[in-house]
């Protein structure tokens, strides 16, 4: 539970850090790393405007998105290798992500705006192509760990020393990193910094939201990014994660997790500064490469075995 | 106990219903009531009968002694499960039909509808219960023909006639394959009773077994609509009246799956490895191609028909995995995969039935099934919208609805394949995982746009503008199915236990205690994976409500203003909305190799003095890849051969007499 809280409440901070590093890389001063918190607080207090074309689907979507992402956070290990196995394994997690996406894309179609419709259409394309890669990456690590619970994967992999030697883990890691960028609407797939560009995807979908609903939608997608980072950190390189409930282990776990997340945030910021956004129809090529990488990862597992 | 009596009563009730409704054809409202209440009673009796078998003992009733053996019904657990699926769908569909068929009042004969509807139901339950190969073939043929007549029910529509002919031709090719293989099997078994066919695999030579497998797979696959034998399905299902589409797509195509399980496992088993691989590959092909064609379709019922192809693919993936596990001797996993397969059969009948009924309700009140002309229906038909949304969520495998539970099990059976160390499989199965995931991702996108374009935003035509909520009985029918989608979803653990009773008779391995304790579904071993549908539903429910309360509590009062959508200064109308074609365009472009989109370019002279010629681009309709590259050449060559043969048919009697003489001489030479 504490881990879930950590994911939810630290996610704006991570976003703030990514933005700060990006600003520094671009020789700007940048806003404070706490800025996302201020934004959320401001949005929660604002009145909202709802389109007159919208139906109940549009209104309930923010709550469904946030609720679903909270269920997801219960299933992800952060600094201690335990997740609520009772709810389900990683496939349940993937399906909950698609539940979230389903409603987000529906709400985008609900308001009769061309921008939101376009965002919705593109989001569905990208996530559909990204989905096989996610599952194959999971397949790879679950082959190694012989389980599909995120917590157990982290524990088993950190206790054994397979992952230091096994190239399939590294390949799966890179494939998953690419997919993480795609799923969370980061450059080179989408530009999170703008919503008035013809390239927009995620920001276009939530264009019509305002006030409290917008705050929830934003927070939900930040949390989703944090979930992906936690999976990256703990499934592929679970070094240092606490496997027993002692103060020492937990504090190491927290420290290592913070370092890892910091590194990933820096990597994202670097990628976003160094690479420009891809044309929409080039995106499948990159995702195709990620898929191939993931497939090779699975096959190489068998070959090495 | 008394399962046989209930079953016979169900048969009797359906027969009475069909005859009575034909008899009182003149009085339309009476016909409707007689026909559909008879089916409702029959289906309820069928459900009771199925439950008695599932929880108690199988039964056999003999009906008629014939030269081919005794015709009769044997309902074992596998039959009972399919009986349950058929009857569970039939009850809500019949309730729905009470109001739906009034549309045909005065236009088409309702007595015929009642007669055929009951006959169709009767033939389906007879197909799953028949205990003799010849009797089975008779029932199978009745099922094909009654469904054919129902497809062409709206017989003044040209497309319906075309669809019907295509269906009847394709289905008979399938039946021919089945007849051949049953005759061969009957020859080896010495009898046509299915009891004698059991464990025939031990007697048959290995090569012949392979041939029989292929014949049966083609024959039953034709009915199931698997690729590449699916071409009749996207024509026939949309043209049939919607209650019939629901029945055909929901349960009729599953009778093919039923017979596959029966023949592959029980008659020809133990299965060979390559059989499983073939079934798995065809399953993958159907799943991914089905969803891709559905994605770019804008005819609502055709779209749903393609989704049936997709779901049959998913079911076949489960079946294929089960056969693979069985052939390498891992019977626990074989049971798991078979449970997944059967669970998906049941789930698909629920949500696809629901979606077709929803499509029928839309057709009923807007008179169009082209989703480009719909929109905004969520305000005009609020209840239908909720039911349809449940169907969309279920088919997109989104928890806590039923579609996800079975898809989860299918994923587990694929992931558990690491227990098999055979090299080609180690490449095929990861690919299958990828394909299944891609299918899932595309299905989500497809149903977002189906629901979004149909129900949300502004109405795109007058039809949609004037839409009204569906009549009461239609809503009841859809409501029952929507409830079932949810209940089966959250009680998936109990359902799995029920299914274990069925699969253990097929694979001889019971895994009930391993796989489920009623609330948590486990893979084998349980520390590989588990999932509690109920808990997911509770967690989602509490957290969504919790967030809502928290946002109200901490966020303070929120004033909601109703205003225009942000429109860049130009008022938005329905013409600004995203269209179905537009929505699917990115997928169309990315998978261009499969769709082969073509557009017609015409040059038009213009009146402007500066621009002389203008080019017009018009997108052409998508053609099924298999139709162009598989069926068209076959049809062409058949026509060519027929044209050659035509030459000997000169029309003169003396020539024909000469042919007879020649034929006689040849026969005499060979069979002296």
Structural class of chain B: mainly alpha
Taking all residues together, what is the mean pLDDT of chain B?
Answer: 87
Shape of chain B: globular
For this structure, the quaternary state is: heterodimer
Largest interface, with counts of residues having CB < 8 Å to the other chain, equals: A-B, 83 and 86 residues
C-alpha-based Rg of chain A, rounded: 19 Å
Helix share bin of chain B: over 70%
Number of strands of chain A: 1
Uncertain ranges of chain B? none
- Strand order of the biggest β-sheet of chain B: 1-2
- Determine Rg of chain B (CA atoms, Å): 27 Å
β content of chain B, as a range? 5-15%
* Structure class of chain A: mainly alpha
The number of helical segments of chain A is: 12
- Look at the structure and give the mean pLDDT of chain A: 84
Quote the distance from N terminus to C terminus of chain B: 59 Å
Cα distance, first to last residue of chain A?
Answer: 37 Å
Which geometry of chain A do the CA atoms define?
Answer: globular
């Amino acid at each position: 539970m504490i881990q879930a809280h950590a994911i939810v409440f630290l996610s704006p901070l991570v976003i703030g850090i990514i933005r700060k590093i990006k600003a520094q890389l671009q020789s700007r001063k940048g806003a404070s790393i706490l800025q996302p918190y201020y934004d959320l607080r401001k949005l929660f207090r604002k009145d909202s405007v709802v389109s007159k074309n919208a139906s109940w689907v549009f209104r309930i979507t923010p709550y469904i998105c946030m609720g679903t992402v909270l269920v997801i956070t219960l299933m992800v290990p952060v600094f201690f290798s335990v997740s609520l196995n009772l709810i389900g394994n990683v496939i349940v997690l993937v399906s909950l992500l698609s539940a979230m996406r389903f409603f987000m894309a529906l709400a985008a179609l609900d308001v009769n705006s061309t921008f939101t419709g376009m965002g919705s259409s593109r989001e569905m394309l990208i996530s559909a192509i990204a989905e096989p890669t996610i599952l194959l990456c999971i397949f790879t690590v679950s082959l190694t760990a012989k389980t599909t619970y995120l917590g157990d994967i982290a524990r088993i992999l950190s206790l054994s020393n397979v992952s230091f030697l096994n190239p399939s883990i590294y390949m799966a890691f890179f494939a998953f990193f690419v997919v993480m960028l795609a799923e969370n609407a980061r450059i080179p797939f989408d530009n999170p910094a703008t919503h008035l560009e013809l390239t927009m995807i995620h920001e276009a979908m939530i264009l019509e939201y305002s006030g409290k609903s917008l705050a929830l939608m934003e927070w939900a997608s930040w949390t989703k990014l944090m979930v992906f980072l936690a999976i990256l950190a703990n499934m592929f390189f679970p070094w240092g994660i606490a496997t027993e409930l002692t103060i020492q282990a937990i504090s190491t776990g927290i420290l290592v997790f913070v370092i890892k997340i910091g590194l990933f945030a820096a990597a994202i910021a670097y990628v976003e500064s160094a690479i420009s956004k891809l044309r929409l129809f080039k995106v499948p090529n990159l995702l195709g490469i990620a898929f191939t990488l993931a497939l090779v990862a699975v096959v190489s597992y068998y070959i090495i075995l | 106990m008394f399962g046989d009596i209930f079953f016979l009563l169900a048969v009797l009730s359906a027969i009475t219903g069909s005859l009575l409704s034909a008899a009182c054809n003149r009085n339309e409202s009476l016909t409707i009531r007689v026909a559909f209440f008879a089916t409702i009673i029959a289906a309820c009796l069928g459900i009771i009968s199925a439950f008695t078998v599932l929880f108690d003992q199988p039964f056999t009733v003999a009906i008629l002694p014939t030269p081919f053996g005794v015709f009769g019904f044997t309902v074992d657990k596998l039959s009972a499960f399919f009986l349950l699926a058929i009857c569970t769908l039939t009850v809500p569909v019949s309730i729905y039909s009470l109001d739906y068929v009034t549309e045909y009042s005065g236009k088409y004969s309702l007595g015929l509808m009642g007669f055929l509807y009951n006959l169709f139901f009767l033939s389906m339950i007879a197909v799953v219960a028949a205990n003799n190969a010849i009797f089975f073939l008779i029932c199978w043929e009745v099922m094909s023909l009654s469904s054919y007549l129902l497809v062409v029910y709206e017989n003044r529509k040209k497309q319906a006639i075309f669809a019907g002919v295509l269906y009847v031709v394709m289905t008979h090719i399938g039946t021919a394959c089945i007849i051949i293989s049953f005759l061969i099997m009957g020859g080896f078994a010495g009898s046509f009773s299915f009891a004698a066919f059991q464990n025939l695999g031990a007697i048959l030579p290995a090569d012949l077994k392979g041939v029989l497998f292929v014949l049966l797979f083609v024959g039953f696959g034709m009915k199931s609509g698997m690729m590449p034998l699916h071409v009749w399905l996207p024509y026939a299902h949309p043209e049939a009246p919607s209650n019939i589409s629901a029945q055909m797509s929901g349960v009729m195509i599953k009778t093919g799956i039923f017979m596959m399980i029966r023949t592959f496992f029980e008659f020809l088993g133990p299965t060979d490895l390559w059989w499983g691989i073939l079934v798995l590959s065809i399953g993958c092909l159907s799943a991914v191609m089905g969803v891709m064609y559905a994605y770019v379709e804008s005819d609502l019922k055709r779209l749903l028909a393609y989704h049936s192809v997709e779901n049959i693919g998913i079911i076949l993936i489960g079946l294929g995995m089960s056969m693979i596990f069985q052939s390498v001797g891992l019977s626990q996993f074989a049971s798991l995969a078979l449970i997944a397969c059967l669970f998906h059969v049941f789930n698909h009948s629920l949500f696809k039935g629901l979606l077709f009924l929803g499509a029928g309700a839309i057709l009923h009140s807007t008179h169009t099934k082209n989703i480009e002309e719909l929109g905004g229906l969520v305000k005009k038909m609020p209840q239908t919208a909720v039911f349809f949304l449940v169907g969309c969520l279920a088919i997109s495998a989104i928890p806590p609805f039923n579609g996800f539970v079975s898809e989860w099990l299918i994923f587990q059976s694929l992931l558990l394949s690491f227990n098999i160390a055979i090299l080609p499989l180690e490449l095929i199965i990861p690919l299958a995982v990828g394909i299944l995931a891609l299918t899932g991702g595309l299905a989500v996108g497809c149903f977002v746009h189906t629901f979004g374009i149909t129900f949300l935003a502004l109405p795109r035509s007058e039809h949609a503008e004037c839409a009204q909520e569906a009549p009461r009985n239609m809503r009841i029918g859809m409501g029952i199915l929507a409830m079932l989608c949810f209940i089966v979803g959250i009680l998936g653990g109990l359902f799995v236990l029920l299914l274990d009773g069925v699969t253990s008779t097929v694979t001889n391995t019971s895994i009930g205690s391993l796989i489920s304790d009623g609330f948590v579904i486990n893979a084998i071993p349980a520390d590989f994976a588990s999932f509690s549908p109920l808990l997911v539903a509770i967690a989602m429910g509490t957290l969504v409500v919790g967030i809502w309360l928290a946002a109200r509590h901490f966020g303070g009062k929120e004033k909601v203003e109703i205003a225009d959508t942000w429109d860049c200064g130009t008022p938005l109308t329905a013409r600004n909305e995203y269209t179905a074609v537009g929505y699917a365009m990115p997928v169309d472009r990315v998978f261009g190799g499969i769709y082969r989109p073509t557009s017609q370019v015409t040059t038009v002279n213009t009146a402007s003095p500066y621009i002389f010629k203008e080019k017009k681009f018009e997108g052409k309709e998508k053609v099924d890849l298999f139709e162009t590259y598989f069926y068209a050449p076959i049809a062409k060559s058949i026509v060519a051969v027929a044209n050659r043969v035509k030459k000997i048919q000169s029309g003169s009697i003396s020539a024909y007499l000469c042919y007879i003489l020649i034929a006689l001489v040849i026969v005499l030479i060979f069979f002296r």
